[in-house]
Amino acid sequence: MNRTSQPFFTGAHGAVPPAYEVLKEEHEVAVLGAPQSQAPVTTTVINIRSETAVPDHIVWSLFNTIFMNCCCLGFVAFAYSVKSRDRKMVGDITGAQSYASTAKCLNICALVLGLLLIIILIIIVSTGSLMILQALSELIQNHGGH
Predict the structure, then answer these.
(1) What SS3 state is found at 15?
(2) In sequence order, what are the beta bridge partners of 15?
(3) CB neighbour class for 77 (10 Å; exposed up to 12, middle 13-18, buried from 19)
(4) What residues contact 97, with CB distance under 8 A and at least 6 apart?
(5) pLDDT per residue over 58-73, tens digit each?
(6) Number of Cα atoms under 13 Å in the Cβ half of residue 102
(7) Phi/psi-derived region of residue 34, left when phi > 0, alpha when psi is between -120 and 50, beta in every other case
(8) Residue 39: what pLDDT?
(9) Which of 46, 45, 47, 55 is nearest to 93 (CA)?
(10) Tens digits of per-residue pLDDT, 102-141?
(11) What residues have CB less than 8 Å from 63, skipping those under 6 apart?
(12) pTM for the full model?
């Protein structure tokens, strides 16, 4: 027997020499076999529903319904906002975006019409009060001149 051969375990800590790792990999390849390239590749597609933020404009619609309900546009916008929220809860993102877009357009129209009516009302009231003051001053001058 040859006593000069290299021992399998060296050192006092029982460290494994690097050659052992190479032997282990060769054994795994021999047992498991080489990677097969002819095997059909199967893929799995997982649809993860992303939380797409679709604004439903429900607060804006409620504001327009309460304060600026010109031609009932605020109420109709509120109805479309509720439909948009319902579609979003069901998972129909396209439908939710469609209803939300309609609600946004109706809200813009209701807001613009409401602001125009308020501005026209302010102009009428201010010019009307000026005309009333002018008529009163002429009336006082005519009666004071007797």
Answers:
(1) strand
(2) 10
(3) buried
(4) 54, 84
(5) 999 999 999 888 789 9
(6) 17
(7) beta
(8) 64
(9) 55
(10) 999 999 999 999 999 999 999 999 898 888 888 889 889 8
(11) 74
(12) 0.57
